[in-house]
Amino acid sequence: MSQSATDPRQFRAPPKKPLRLSWADERVRAIFWQVLIVGIVIAVVWWLVRNTQHNLEVRRIATGFGFLNREAGLPIGEALIEYTPASTYLRALMVGVLNTLKVAVIGIILATILGTLVGIARLSKNWLLAKVAAVYVEVIRDIPLLLQLLFWYTLLQGLPGPRQALNPVTGVFLSNRGLKLPFLDWEAGHSWGLLAFAVGCCGLYLFAKAMRRRQMQDGQPRAIWPAALGFLIGLPLVAWWLGGAPVGIEWPALRGFNFQGGMSVSPEYFALLVGLTTYTAGFIAEIVRAGILAVAQGQWEAAQALGLRPGVVLRQIVLPQALRVIVPPMTSQFLNLTKNSSLAVAIGYQDIVSIANTTLNQTGQAIEGIAIIMLVYLTISLSISLFMNWYNSRIALVER
Amino acid sequence: MSDISLGSSVAGVPEAAPRQPPALTTGPAAWMRANLFSSWLNTAVTLVMAYFILRWALSFIDWAFINAIWSVPNNQTQACRALKGSDHPGACWAVITEKHRFILFGTYPYEQHWRPALVCVLFTALFVVSAMRRFWRWELAIVWAVTLTVIGVLMWGGVLGLEFVPQERWGGLPITLILATFGLAFAFPLAIMVALGRRSSMPAIRVLCIAYVEIIRGVPLISLLFMASVMFPLFLPEGINIDKLLRAQVAVILFAGAYLAEVVRGGLQALPKGQYEAADALGLSYWHKTGFIILPQALRLVIPPLVNTFIGFFKDTSLVLIIGIFDLLTAGKTAIVEPAWQGFGVEVYIAISLIYFIYCFAMSRYSQNLEAELNRHRVR
Questions:
Q1: Of chain B residues 314-373, which have a CB less than 8 A from chain A?
Q2: Coiled-coil segments, which residues (chain A) (predicted)?
Q3: Pick from A16-20, A105-109, B183-187, B255-259: least confident
């Protein structure tokens, strides 16, 4: 039996005072204020709702989400799922959500890479590199994102037309119609390869976990890289080969007034992606820099004194500690990037805000339109925060 | 013992050869060796970067200064267009020369432009005065109230012999400054109340504050602005119509309030628990405790992050472009709608960026200095 369990002070609850109906009783006051404030909030909301109902009646606007099944009739330039102007509003909004996710996911990945590089560059011993990174961060963070997006978009629009397209590398064309890249002539074999890669990732994760468990038992480190090679490269290659080993590559070519074939990146998407990536990277760079600086110099020295190689020091000693500082603010940057992707509406990229806005203008369903926008963003924000909180709790310091 | 002196050589030990002073440990050459050419990799990085920086800098100077056109007569932009298509492209700063009054002040009556100009100066002066620590006392609140009133009088007019200018004609930089400053002035008290509410012991109030903060922070500012522009009129009783600028201002205040509340909450949490308990032990009431003990310390802790939030928020006012309010960015975008000036967006955007950059950079430098100053007692 431990000392604290037998300590009578641990058991004795504070004496319970009976609730007196008097202003001097703190609990009575608390209940009074809460009832008052909640009452005011309910009254205001009720007042707003009643006004809204009245206004809607006067303007003869029917509420409800019935309009979602009507024909949208709005053209959408780029869609990840099949869409025609004859499709329903629901379909159009789904296209919008997917377009938002497309720019947010790719933007988060690119911004993390660029931001980490810039953050490390700012700590470089090379004076020139550190200064260039510092200037980048200062300039990019002090100019509104919307202005940067308009700037990039104007710059892209100022490029020559498809006939005089810039051609920096064979097969890559940059014109005012966007960026054209050569792409694989997609066949079943590629899909099999991709699937095998996904399976390989899962397999490698399980394998690495098993190996780590065995290392914990006998202390012998085991090499994982041969298995990684097999899982991540071998398996997809075999699947691709079994799928017929397709090798065709589709090159963009000028036909008529525009390019045909290959992968196409619209100028709107390109401007939005470049703007979001460079802007968020400026903030991520500062977070990464702060995270690395937060690891005490003694940690590096102690690890070196133990005879660890520099790569191991970075991976096993410094990075896990830096990540604890980096992950929480990084989460809010990812959320910011996602929310900032709503600025797409200013340069004509059809994300959820743009499509919902057109929808509410066409149908007059203002409340539903804005509710949809807010719901979509709340869902995305919540999912990112849940995932990052889970990740954060995994890497958090295990304390007593 | 006393016969051993520094000058005498010990018998048997040969005299050391006179040594050269260590070469290259000071001076520019040593600095370059340490910071630019310390290893093969560093040398390569330095050379590659220097090459690209020089190339870009030279072509930028060519474009922005040497080949640039600074003014054209009577909106005749042919020379600019010819320059744009040529082999040595140059900037057409004529668009700024011609349109700068419009970009800065929008559609405000031309002969009255001194008024918005004075307003911008007043705002800037107000920021500078508020930034100085020697003025951090309660009289500052009076200065703010007086200045904001003067600004209102100058913008609207209608008294003191000033011509009345309706709100629809305001535009440009004053709108940006008004949205940001009034937004802050109202969002800040709101944020303090919400932050206190979120740490309150009353569950209903806590839930309300959490819901407000999390919902606002979970949606983009644009959706709030849309709400202000299309949904707000539906909320109000028939016949009452609130100006568009005011509606946007309300959205901005609600938005900023949620973000500032989180910063303030950080300060409240960072304060040692002993401060709360000591205030309780003295028998102070909740408001005395909060006003005299907690807030003065908590706010001081969070001044640097507050300034950073202000910067973000100053930049975010540019989003009102999307609902068509005539701020600095909208004015710039409108200036190049005119056919004669179409296609000179890059020049205009660079000029506007410069204005935003000056304000934001000043604030960010100020926040860094302040942080260093406030943390001086922690640095050993």
A1: 315-316, 318-319, 321-322, 329, 333, 343, 345-346, 349-350, 352-353, 356-357, 360-361, 364
A2: none
A3: A16-20
CB contact (8 A) between residue B329 and residue A30? no
The amino acid at residue A116 is T
CATH topology of domain B177-325: MetI-like fold (1.10.3720)
Please check whether residue B236 is in contact with residue A51, taking contact to mean a CB–CB distance below 8 angstroms.
Answer: yes
Note the pLDDT tens digit of each residue in B90-121.
Answer: 778 878 888 888 888 888 888 888 888 899 99
Report how far apart the first and last C-alpha atoms of chain A are (Å, whole number).
Answer: 20
Kindly state whether B81 is in contact with chain A, defined as any CB-CB distance less than 8 angstroms.
no
Q: Considering only CA atoms, which of B183, B181, B185, B170 is closest in space to residue B247?
A: B183
Task: State in Å, rounded, how far the first CA of chain B is from the last one.
Answer: 42
Q: In angstroms, rounded to a whole number, what is the distance separating the alpha carbons of residues A367 and A290?
A: 43
The residues spanned by each domain of chain B are 177-325
**pLDDT by residue (tens digit) across B144-172?**
889 988 988 888 877 777 788 888 888 88
Distance of CA B328 to the CA centre of its chain: 14
The residue among B219, B287, B321 with the most chain A CBs within 10 A of its CB, best to mutate, is B219
Instruction: Report yes or no: A283 and A141 within 8 Å, Cβ to Cβ.
Output: yes
Tokens of A311: 């790569």
Q: How far is B138 from chain A (nearest CA, A)?
A: 29
Distance CA A272, CA A152 (A): 8
Among B217, B329, B346, beta carbon nearest to A154: B346
Phi-psi region of B27 (alpha: psi -120 to 50; beta: other; left: phi over 0): left
Q: b or e along A317-326 (b: 16 or more beta carbons within 10 Å of the residue's beta carbon)?
A: bbeebbbebb
Q: Which amino acid is at B119?
A: V
Phi, psi of A338 (to 5 degrees): -60, -45
Contacts of residue B280, Cβ cutoff 8 Å, sequence gap at least 6? B289
Which residues on chain A are in Cβ contact (under 8 Å) with B230?
360, 366, 369-370
Q: Is-contact A235 A207, C-beta < 8 A?
A: no
Categorise residue A256: left if φ over 0, alpha if ψ from -120 to 50, beta otherwise: left
In our burial notation (b when 16+ CB lie closer than 10 A, e otherwise), range A28-52 reads eebeeebeeeeeeeeeeeeebeebb
Number of continuous H segments (helices) and E segments (strands) in chain A: 16, 7
**Cα dist from A167 to A249, A254, B85, whole Å:** 18, 12, 18
